[in-house]
Inverse folding.
């Protein structure tokens, strides 16, 4: 009988740089990764690129990449992702009213699958006056 295998996810270089707060370097590295892999995971990578720009307080560029990250299919058929997506962009565009609207809708339909997204929108809402990095990583009780 063989041992069950455990698959360990190895972090990419841009993720490690991001964890160290080196957002400019992480952006460069993620762009290199996108260029080298072509269209593979491009939507996910654009979302992460948007987050890196947001962590670096470049909200306009962050929104541009976040909008590129989500296909019309995702927006039409995954309404809970759409709420998280729109709520995040509302924060970056400094629209607290819209952020609250999307957060409350997501909270109303909360599921284990979207729990992290719901908590993130809650944190963005409760910490609206903070920069994205601080509001995103705020730990509530």
């Amino acid at each position: 009988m063989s041992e069950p295998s455990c698959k360990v996810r190895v972090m990419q270089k841009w993720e490690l740089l991001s964890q160290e707060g080196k957002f400019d370097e992480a952006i460069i590295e993620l762009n290199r990764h996108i260029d080298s892999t072509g269209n593979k995971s491009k939507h996910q990578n654009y979302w992460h690129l948007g987050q890196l720009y947001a962590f670096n307080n470049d909200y306009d560029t962050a929104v541009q990449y976040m909008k590129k990250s989500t296909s019309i299919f995702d927006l039409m058929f995954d309404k809970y992702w759409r709420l998280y997506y729109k709520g995040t962009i509302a924060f970056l565009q400094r629209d607290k009213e819209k952020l609250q609207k999307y957060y409350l809708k997501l909270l109303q339909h909360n599921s284990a699958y979207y729990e992290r997204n719901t908590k993130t929108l809650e944190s963005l809402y409760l910490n609206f006056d903070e920069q994205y990095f601080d509001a995103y990583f705020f730990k509530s009780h």
